[in-house]
Amino acid sequence: xxxxxxxNPKILLYFLLSILFLLGSCKALxxxxxxxxxxxxxxxxxxxxxxxxxxADVPWRSLFTDTLLQxxxxxxxxxxxxxxxxxxxxxxxxANFQQSKAAFFPSLNASAGASYQKNDAMIAGVPAIYQLxxxxxxxxxxxxxxxxxxxxxxxxxxxxxxxxRTVQTRLIASxxxxxxxLLAFDAKxxxxxxxxxxxxxxxETIKLMxxxxxxxxxxxxxxxxxxxxxxxxxxEIELSIYETENALSIMLGRDPGSIARHSLxxxxxxxxxxxxxxxxxxxNRPDVQEAEFQFRYGFEMTNVARKYFYPALTVSATGGITxxxxxxxxxxxxxxxxxxxxxxxPIFNQGQNRQRLRVAQANQEEYLISFKQTLLTAxxxxxxxxxxxxxxxxxxxxxxxxxxxxxxxxxxxxxxxxYTSSTNYTDVLTSEVNLLSAQLNSIDDKLEQLQxxxxxxxSLGGGWKQ
Length: 466
Fold this sequence. Notes:
The chain has helices at residues 2-6, 9-25, 60-63, 67-79, 81-102, 145-211, 217-231, 233-251, 281-284, 286-306, 352-419, 425-459, and strands at 107-116, 128-140, 312-323, 335-344. It is of the alpha+beta class and 466 residues long. It has one domain (35-104, 141-310, 352-459): Outer membrane efflux proteins (OEP). A 4-stranded antiparallel sheet has the order 1-2-3-4, with no helix packed on it. The longest helix has 68 residues, at 352-419. The two termini are 72 Å apart.
């Protein structure tokens, strides 16, 4: 009696499950831990930062106060094709994650059928069989392979969400940069048109001076050429405006067309340009988060690959009703069932398990390097953006003085041309060319300053927080 109890299938099954769960609880696999990929002290190069105040925490509506720009950003977030693709990617990742959760439950299938057999040797009756059958199977996740697969799919879901935030951050920065670029082209067009007016006046003045023998015909021809050198830039600027409007329209998810906008010198971003400490990049910058979730996915998939070397316990059950008479199909005597459990230990699988592990480990190594590279790039971009802003601000101050002196130079040389022979029109021409160049460069300085702020905001991970 005692021996029969020991070899009872139910007791053996319970004993085996207990041993396997005990072994599973003692597994050497460690949970995920964020890797220490860099030293944060030098991430921003020579910027010594201890204040956690961060411009990335400022909502984009508070940073960009131009109402027309706000409208454009809102339209882009609503309609941009790349952002819609990112949302679709999130939905796909969510479906995969839900499917990985369903792997913990048994599979269940049902079938119904009837068979009719004919035998020429049979004289009395022809047998028929009617069946309703259900089958189910379940794999015990003793070693945590299914749990690792679920965590891997969760990492992919989180990665897709971070990717969506990355797209939104870049989109906001791209819309703002394109908007400011349009304003800069408008300002250049305005300056160039004003220059053409002044040079038209110069041509008339030079004509009068030639009639009075104060200048030569060569001076008159030079003044006319100087006028056309300004006029020829107008079509180029207008083309740049046209192309930038079309490019911005695509970002907005609309047909190419004109863009409503204010002027360049109405833009005033007064946010305190604080970078925060380098560690905040891990919490704020979406592409850094995306790279880490990708590494986390690789880490879990390596766990999955390792667990293919362990035995798998499956339990299968079959049950249903069968009868040779349709009227007796639901009779209790027609019911049948059986349960089968099995333990499969991989021994030789054509090297697939080892190859799967090597691929997973190589992917994990690749994702780790990518994570480190993304974080280093983020730190470089923050340092560059802040330095670009400081450089542009310094250039604006210096350029203002340059333009002031060049304007005086143009006026002085023009007056000297009227009253002294020691000055010729070449001096006037040089002063005018230099003045226009400085005025256009001053517009670029202002644009660089605004775009440096946008770049810093993006580099720190700003734009996705509402």
